[in-house]
Specification:
alpha/beta, globular, about 130 residues, 4 helices, Glucose Oxidase, domain 1, single chain
């Protein structure tokens, strides 16, 4: 969706994610109450989650995170991306991969070092978790 290659530790979330409200714009830390990854930083991570949720302001949050160097390296979504996350990824220079052939939420270990390749539409394991 947004072409590029990026690598980093996988931040795998089983639930949908919103950049507005789920992440602190200053630190990149997940702050959503009850979120399985609460307290973890998205900075430099390859985020893998089923789909986006929520706000049209998510693109602004991604832009602010990028200005502070706290943006994810890549975003991988199981389902199609909404236009706002696409816009945010373009502005923030974040690789965005949507609808990969396999269920990466189920198969990628949280914390594994991976490369998201939006040119080829796949995610490669570089080292185990």
């Amino acid at each position: 969706m947004v072409k590029g290659r990026a690598s980093g530790r996988a931040l795998v979330c089983r639930a949908p994610f919103s950049f507005l409200g789920d992440v602190d714009m200053d630190t990149g830390e997940i702050i959503a109450s009850g979120h399985e990854r609460r307290g973890e930083s998205i900075a430099g991570r390859v985020m893998i989650y089923p789909e986006t949720k929520g706000s049209s302001s998510g693109c602004v949050v991604l832009m602010v995170l990028a200005k502070k160097g706290r943006q994810p390296a890549a975003i991988v979504l199981s389902k199609p991306a909404d236009p706002n996350i696409v816009e945010g990824a373009i502005i923030a220079g974040v690789t965005l991969l949507c609808e990969p052939d396999e269920d990466l939420v189920a198969s990628v270990p949280h914390g594994a070092v991976v490369e998201a390749d939006a040119f080829e539409g796949l995610v490669r394991w570089l080292e185990p978790d």
